[in-house]
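Subgroup meeting minutes
Present: P.N., E.W., G.H.
Scribe: E.W.

1. P.N. recapped why we're keeping a running log of single-chain structure predictions: easier to compare across weeks, and new members can see raw inputs and outputs side by side.
2. G.H. added today's entry (184 aa).
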Amino acid sequence: MDAIPDQLQQAGINVDTLKKGDFFSREQVILAYSLLNPKVDERIERFEHGEIKADPRTWAGPFVIDYITHRRSGAGRPVVCRCEDGGIRVLTDSQAAPYLNKQATAGLKKHSQKTRLMQSAIDMSGLNPHEQAQHSSRLRVQQFMCSAHENARKSLREKKESGVEDPDRSASLGQHLMGANGTN
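Output recorded in log:
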């Protein structure tokens, strides 16, 4: 997935110099996808001839975003990108903050839903003893994480209702997420 440094520049995307607020059109994103993944051109051709049903271009935005964010994070200059009308928007700080909050909340909701499914949709009698033990262990871990999240939300809601201000934990949270030495 490592492109030659100027390879994406053929699509008008310079990963090293892009700025928050930049927008790359659908055409630029599809060209960048083709540059990063040469096999996609063959798949697009097969799609257009009806040999495959899913249009491979639908993955262009997420694929290019993953490349951009990985390269920028590796260089110590992370950015937040979002697919927009087939193109990619590099979000400004004021756009990225609520976007990331919504993404994090959606992730927690999805985790909770999938954990409930782990409990209700799996018939333990269809698993061998090893699989049963493995599933039970995984389920306990996921339930513990859901419980911690729910308890934290409840605690924050109660503090807010009682007028107690919660101390700013963003610095310690950032250190926790980034690791002790400040890197992932």
